Structures are given as C-alpha cells and as structure tokens.
Amino acid sequence: MDYKIAEETEDLIVVEPSMEVIDPPDYGQMMRKLELCGKTAYKAEGNMKEGSAEPFIRKIIQLGHESVLEHASITVKAVCDRGVTHEIVRHRIASYTQESTRYCNYATEKFKGRLWVVKPVFLEAGSEKYALWKESMAYAARAYKKMIEAKWRPEEARAVLPNSLKTEICMTMNIREWRHFFRLRTEVNAHPQIREIAGMMLGRFKADYPALFSDI
Fold it and tell me: How many CB atoms lie under 10 A from the CB of residue 175?
C-alpha cells in the first residue's frame, strides 16, 4: 500500500489517512446477485432482465427493505490512527484484522526505526498546536525506542504508544452495515478524524456502486 507521507523527522514519519478497496467486487455482478436474492421473496426471478437490477435495488432501499443488501459485502483496508479504529470496531456486524502493536516492533528497520503517526485533520501543519502535537509524538517515539533498547518486548513497550499511532485495518461489512456505518460516521457530530476517513470511503463507494450509496 502506498502511504501519503506528510513529513519525516529523526523520530517520526507523519502520514495522511488513506484507504483502498481490497478485491473490488464487480458492480454489475453484485447488483444481479442482490436482485436475484431480493426477487426470490416474490418469486419474481423471471422478471430479471438487462438493466432491471438498479431500479429494483433503489426501490427496495427506498422502501427500507435493506436486509436484501446483506447478501453482498465490500472489504476496505484503511490507514488511520488507533483512536479512529477504536471507533470503527464498535460496528460489530463486520470482520476486522488490524496491525498488532504486540507483534510489530516499531524500532526495527521495517518501520525505518521511527514511529509512524497520522496527522490529525484538525491540526494545521506549521501551527503552534501542530508543533506541540509533534513534540509529544517525538517524546513517545524516543521513550518507546529506549524501552526496546532496554530489552522490553514490543507488547510491553506499546504502553507508551499514542492514539495518533498509524495503524492499518482490513474491514469487511455487508452493504447494509456499510450504509449504517456511513450514516453515523459522516454526519456532522462524528469525530473529525473518523469523518475524514469515512468520507473517503463513501466517496469511492458512491462512484463505484451508485445505486447502493448515492442516497447517503
């Protein structure tokens, strides 16, 4: 995965959040599958024809019959900070696999011997608040490295890792749950950082799967 690196220092690599769809499902095939599942309820499979899937799916969404949407899913790999993933994993009708702070040693060359952190969207680079945040991140990075050098295990040294630590999470949800996720996490009262990454995902989904997400 390509990282959007915003800044590098002696102690830190600062990245921007990003996302990618893993093994993107074909839109046409997904729509035909959902149409078949939905029309099974009415034994109307014989009415399926070229171009009939989209209007049918839009109609069942309009009517609130979203259980049909559970027959298809999408997997996303997101780069964000651990504070954001604490919120993401509260959506329980989903599957998650996340970068482990127990087994990843951030003092090794794999991570360029530096702590990778995510720049908060609400901090402007070059501002006084950003400088204070970066100073705090660098302090945590140096403390972590000292612990590793003192033979602490990564699962012990992680006690000083910050919420801003860069993490990667693979998340799979069915379409109904994605719609629920976006309704909650893109609205104005959501935390700015989860709203940022959820907005990226929703923008991609609207472009690739319009009948399923264009109404959100």
Answer: 24
Kindly tell me the sign of the dihedral angle through the C-alpha atoms of 198, 179, 78, 83: positive
Q: Which residues form the domain of 162?
A: 4-25+72-213
**DSSP element (H, E) containing 187:** none
Question: Is 1's pLDDT higher than 90?
Answer: no
Report angle CA 134, 137, 140 to the nearest 5 degrees: 155
Q: Are residues 62 and 167 in the same domain?
A: no
Clarify whether residues 144 and 197 are in a common domain.
yes
Label residue 45 by pLDDT band (50, 70, 90): confident
pLDDT at 66: 97
Q: How far apart are CA 113 and CA 11, in angstroms?
A: 8
Q: Identify the pLDDT of residue 103.
A: 97
What integer best gives the mean pLDDT of the chain? Answer: 97
**Residue % of the chain over a pLDDT of 70:** 100
Catalytic residues: 185
Cβ atoms within 10 Å of 150's Cβ, excluding its own: 9
Question: Could you give the CA distance from residue 98 to residue 128 in angstroms, rounded to a whole number?
Answer: 32
Check whether residue 48 and residue 14 sit in a common domain: no
Domain with residue 87: its CATH number is 3.30.1360.170
> Which residue intervals of 89-209 are DSSP H helices?
128-149, 154-157, 175-185, 192-208
Cα–Cα dist 34/36, whole Å: 5
| Residues 49 and 110 grouped into a single domain | no
